[in-house]
Every structure is written in C-alpha cells, then in structure tokens.
Specification:
By secondary structure, the chain is an alpha+beta fold. Helix content is 35%, strand content 18%. α1 crosses α2 and α9 runs antiparallel to α17.
C-alpha cells in the first residue's frame, strides 16, 4: 500500500504545535518517497517481464506447431512450383464408338525413400534390387548412405511389388498413392492412343499428361474434370481383326512394315487404323534417335509415312478427265511406248499394245496412257484437283503425329511432273491422304476430312468430282478386281473395287532402290453401294511362294487387303450379297 504524505511545511507546523520533532517527520517523508519509487520500478519490471513471457510463449507455440506439422506430414521431392499450385490427377476415359474402354485411370502406388529414417540401408538396397532387377544395388546403397534426404525409387509399382517391399520392413521405404494411365487392350490401337506419362509430381499425387496420339491432341479436354469420356470412331473389334490380319500378311510377305486405314466414305470416320511394327502404350519405348525413323515402333506409317504410292493415283486422273469432258470410259488412248519427254522416258510394266480405252488404261494400269491423259488435263488443273482432295497439306486427323505428315511436292510442277504424278510418282502423300481421296470418289464426289471422333451422320465437304465421274470411276475400280491387276482382291459377296500401286522405294541419299518397293492396294467396298474405303500398304514386301520373288501389289498387298475385308465386313454389319456382276447400278448417297 502506498502512503500519501502530508505537505512538509504544514506537517512541520502541525508537529511543532503538538510538540513533535520536525526532523523525524522529514525523515519519514523521505522514506515514504523512496518506497513509492521502488513500487513504481517494480511495477514497470513486472510489466516488462509479462510482455517478454507472452512473446516467448507465442514463439514457442509457432515453432512447436511447425515442428509438429513437419513430423506428421509426408516428405516430397523439392520442385519449383507456383504458390498454391495443386496437382490434378483426374483424366477422362477414352472409349471406342460402342463405349468399349480403350484408356482409363488406375490407382497404384509410387515407392520412395527417406534415407535418414532407414534402419539398415544395405539390407534395403539388396532387397530392392531383388524385387526390381533393373535397379543397381550399389547405386541404391550409395544414395541411401549419402546426404540425400529423399529419393524416388519407382514411380509405379504393382500390388505384388508393394507387398514385397513391405516385407523388407525398413521404415525409410514409403509409398504414395497415385493414378496411372492404363490401356487394358495392350498394343491394340497404340498409335491412335499414343500414351501418357507424369508431369508435375508429389508423393501422394502425380499429374497425368498425354505424350502422343489422341492423349496429347486432346490433353486439355481429357484433363477437364467436367468431361467423363472421349468417344473415338474406332471399332475395337474391327481394330483387333485388322491388326491380326495385317500382322500375318506382313510376316507372310516378308515386309519390313505395314499400315492399313479403314474409313467410312460418308463421314470420314476412321473405323480402324494400323501401323506395324507397334508397341504397348503401357510400356511406351523411348524414341529412336539414330537410323531410319520408320524403323521405330513409335513411327505411325498411316500419317507420318509420306510415300510415292504409285498407280493408285491413276483413277484420280481418269475421273478428272471425265469430269472435264476430255474423255469418256471408251475413249481410245495412244499407249505406244516409250513415251518421250525431253531426255526422259515413260514406260509400262509390260507392252499393252498401241492403244487402249480409258477403262483399259485403268484396268491394265498403263503409265503411258495415264500420262497422255494428264497432258490433256494440264498442270494447273491437275494441281487444283490435288489441292481440293487435300493432297497438298497435312491432314486434320486428330492425333499430334498427323501434322508431321505433310506431302512432298515437286519443286517445279512442270508438265513432266504432271505426267508422273498422274501415275503416282513425283508427289508423296500418306496412306491417310489416299484413303480420304478414294472416299471422295466413293461417296459421289464430295471431299471428306479423316476424323478419329465418332460422328452423328454424314460429314461431306465441297464437291470434287461430279456424280457421273464418280460412278464411272467406281465401275473402273470394280473391273480392276474382276479383270485386271487386283484379281486376288475379289471377296465373294462384297463386290470389292480397287486399284493397285507399286512404287520404287527412294534411297535416303537419293535415287531409288532396284529391289525394294512400297506396295499399296486402295479399295472400296461394296463397289455397287460404297460404304468403306480400305488402304493397305506394305513396306518392302516379297512374295516367295513362286519360282521367282514377286514384289508387285497384286501379289502382296491385294491378298492381305482381301483377307482383311473378308474378316471385317461382317463385323461392320455388311451382309454378303449375290454378286451383281459388272457394276451397272451404283447407289450414291451423296446428299
């Protein structure tokens, strides 16, 4: 308690009146003032101590809370990230035209290590090397006993591998749940699907991103949580049959590679597309960095393979000439050879006589006859037709690789170029381009764009050929099978029409191989009611069943295509019909 002293003078006067000693009173007043000063100093010190204690308490709580959070949280690999960034692992399914699953997400685990928490690094390294033969025990031990606090061991492990790691029993080996992309059909449709990998990663989640095919082309769509699935135009059953037949045909014909494209002529939907050799997108191989790119299983021959496709182009020349009124199917063409243009000579595979009708030029596949027709068409009109057909630019097919399949055009599109292009030399395109071109002939003359997405109805573009020229061209294609170079392509009940093409294969350093070809058969079925186009191309085929090796498309690509049509036509819902004989009544639903 603080005492309040009286005023000194009043206190002394009052003391004198009462007979008290004034000096004693003064000493009392000094003592009281000293006590007041000590009390004030003590109060200030107690306040400061209280503030300091509160500060230390808050600091202790912050540090203790942070340490508690670090002790209870999972470690993760350091990486530069924007503040607040979140890993989104969800990805929509990919299905075929009937809803059959082609790609989906699958829950799995990643394996990582925290070396500071390991009990026996040597035993852990030995156990992991036994579970995962691709890991090196010495390298693992060096990592476990070094300065690293965290390291990935496997981004994806199976349940069996996870259990085996559990049995090692080391607390420094930990698991993080994550999604992986699963392709339940293995290599089926691999070049269309492409594959996926991991982008941004954490121990409990990983970003799944597309790296090729539709997975990359539609990456934003597939990663959007609002989308459940991506429906493709592929038919899983037809794709399986086509791959099996093409693989067997490639082996039988001793070919280096092969591709096939099956397309709906009215919608441009690609029902099946195969490129061999292939791969499993669940275990996508590394890109090939040396040698011929087409040797890599990742190379998609259907869109990236840009080739001179040979005589399959002749039907475009005949159809355009009929459209222009230059010829009709019975117009007689001079086929005497060789055809000279400057120092160049154009020859036929064999001597077909001095003259043939336009129909015979196509049926017998005369280079000379087709070149003479091209001379009458002219350079500019031929180039305009190729542009309308989409032969001068990459297709819009919805896989990322298609953009790289840009046709190779002549540096100077001269009259000689027009003559050679008329029979498929001098202009290099992909089998996908060719399929779209034949679809335009088959649907009544309208351009179609190849698509891998399921459509709800016809999707026809600008008119390229007249309906009359389309009908006449289909009749010629049917005669090629019944009377000409594609006789092995006749499939009972399905009235196949088509055209063969055998082109010398170019050398990487220039010029052409003498004993290597690209053999192609472009077909339409049924020819009297066109529904589908099938293009089959074999790379360096050799038929060795005869006395001498045979490489032409009639002996190699045609039998393979015929077997494919025989297998897939019933799967497409096409019923075999009584053979109509010569195609006289062709149904064209081009409106």
């Amino acid at each position: 308690m603080i005492r309040t002293p009286l005023r000194p003078l009043a206190r002394i006067l009052d003391a004198r009146e009462k007979g008290e000693n004034p000096d004693a009173i003064e000493r009392e007043n000094i003592r009281i003032r000293h006590e007041q000063m000590r009390d004030a100093a003590r109060q200030r010190a107690e306040g400061r101590l209280l503030i300091l204690g509160v500060f230390f308490l808050c600091a202790f709580l912050v540090v203790g809370g942070r340490m508690g959070m670090m002790a209870t949280s999972e470690p993760r690999e350091p990486r530069a990230e924007a503040p607040g960034s979140v890993i989104h692992a969800a990805r929509a399914d990919i299905v075929d035209r009937h809803g059959n699953l082609l790609a989906t997400n699958f829950e799995t685990h990643a394996l990582y290590a925290q070396p500071p928490h390991m009990v026996d690094p040597a035993q852990a390294a030995k156990g992991l090397a036994q579970i995962f033969p691709d890991l090196d025990e010495k390298e693992l031990l060096a990592d476990f006993t070094g300065s690293r606090k965290f390291l990935w061991i496997k981004r994806r492990i199976s349940p069996e591998q996870m259990q085996a790691v559990h049995e090692i029993g080391d607390p420094g080996l930990l698991f993080g749940a994550r999604d992986m992309r699963l392709y339940p059909n293995g290599s089926l449709g691999a070049h269309v699907l492409g594959g996926a990998s991991y982008g941004k990663e954490g121990v409990n989640a990983a970003e799944v991103i597309g790296v090729a095919g539709v997975e990359k082309y539609f990456d934003d769509y597939l990663r959007d949580p609002a989308n459940d699935e991506l429906r493709l135009s592929l038919d899983l059953t037809v794709q399986a049959a086509a791959e099996r037949v093409l693989y067997g045909g490639m082996k039988l014909m001793n070919a280096k590679g092969a591709t096939s494209v099956l397309m709906d002529v009215h919608t441009g939907e690609v029902i099946s597309v195969v490129s061999l050799p292939t791969f499993d997108p669940n275990k996508r191989p590394r890109p090939q960095v040396t040698g011929d790119a087409s040797d890599s299983p990742l190379f998609n021959r259907s869109v990236q393979g840009v080739y001179e496709l040979g005589s399959v182009f002749k039907i475009f020349t005949a159809a355009q000439a009929m459209d222009l009124g230059i010829v009709n199917p019975e117009t007689v063409i001079d086929t005497r050879g060789p055809l000279r243009w400057g120092k160049f000579r154009i020859r036929d595979f064999r001597n077909y006589g001095n003259e043939m009708t336009v129909s015979k030029v196509i049926v017998k596949s005369s280079n000379i006859g087709t070149a003479r027709i091209a001379q009458d068409i002219g350079v500019q009109r031929q180039r305009d037709l190729m542009k309308k057909l989409g032969m001068l630019e990459a297709t819009n097919f919805e896989i990322v690789e298609a953009a790289g399949g840009r046709p190779l055009l002549p540096a100077n599109w001269s009259e000689l170029s027009a003559m050679t292009i008329s029979y498929g030399h001098g202009l290099s395109t992909s089998p996908m381009h060719l399929a779209a071109g034949y679809a335009a002939l088959a649907n009544g003359g309208f351009r179609v764009e190849p698509t891998i997405l399921k459509q709800n109805g016809p999707r026809l573009g600008d008119r390229v050929f007249s309906e009359k020229a389309s009908r006449e061209a289909l009749r010629m294609l049917r005669r090629v099978v019944t009377e000409g170079t594609a006789s092995f392509g006749d499939v009972k009940g399905y009235a196949v029409g088509g055209k063969t093409g055998t082109a010398d294969k170019p050398r990487p350093q220039g010029g052409y191989y003498e004993d290597k070809v690209l053999a192609t058969f472009a077909s339409v079925f049924p020819a009297h009611d066109p529904r589908y186009v099938l293009v089959v191309t074999l790379d360096e085929p050799i038929d060795t069943t005869g006395d001498e090796p045979r490489r032409t498309a009639g002996w190699t690509a045609v039998p393979v295509a015929a077997e494919m049509i025989r297998r897939v036509a019933p799967l497409l819902g096409l019923r075999p019909t009584v053979e109509p004989g010569p195609v006289t009544d062709i149904k064209l639903t081009s409106n």
